[in-house]
Design goal:
With 128 residues, the chain is mainly α. It has a domain of 64 residues. The protein has three helices and four strands. It has a two-stranded antiparallel ribbon. A two-stranded antiparallel sheet has the order 3-4. It is flat and about 55 Å long. The N and C termini lie far apart (67 Å). InterPro entries: Ribosomal_mL54. Keywords: Mitochondrion, Ribonucleoprotein, Ribosomal protein, Transit peptide. It is found in: Mitochondrion.
């Protein structure tokens, strides 16, 4: 039993020594030079995605909806085939606070958010 304990301790020290030795290697693996890293890691090249410029295709298809390598984008249907509620969705900025009902959750969430912003701005002014 004591022999097994000694062997286990020996393996742990050998593994630890190998890790230390590996981490102190200068110049990367096999003498290659590592690329200079930015603040968040190595810099990667940005991919240039193709942009559809054909006006006929832009009017009849939802460009970019196909996520697979094969197939085509979703073909747009006439407006009459879509539900009515789709056309009444608010796509602009949120309604002002005066338009919201005082008994709604959205109203009180907005009031709380505005109060937190105000307090944060005041705290910011006190620090400087």
């Amino acid at each position: 039993m004591a022999l097994l304990n000694c062997i286990n301790k020996l393996q742990v020290t050998v593994n630890y020594a190998l890790k230390i030795q590996y981490s102190n290697v200068v110049g990367g693996m096999l003498g290659t030079i590592k690329k200079k890293k930015g603040k968040l890691g190595p810099m990667m090249e940005k991919k240039v995605l193709p942009v559809e410029t054909d006006p006929e295709k832009l009017l009849s298809y939802c460009c970019g909806s196909n996520i697979y390598k094969t197939g085509e984008d979703v073909k747009l249907k006439p407006d009459s085939e879509y539900p009515d509620w789709l056309w009444s969705i608010r796509t602009g900025p949120p309604p002002p606070l005066e338009e919201l009902d005082r008994n709604s959750i959205e109203y009180w969430r907005r009031v709380r958010k505005m109060g937190m912003r105000r307090n944060n701005q005041l705290q910011k002014l006190k620090r400087t």
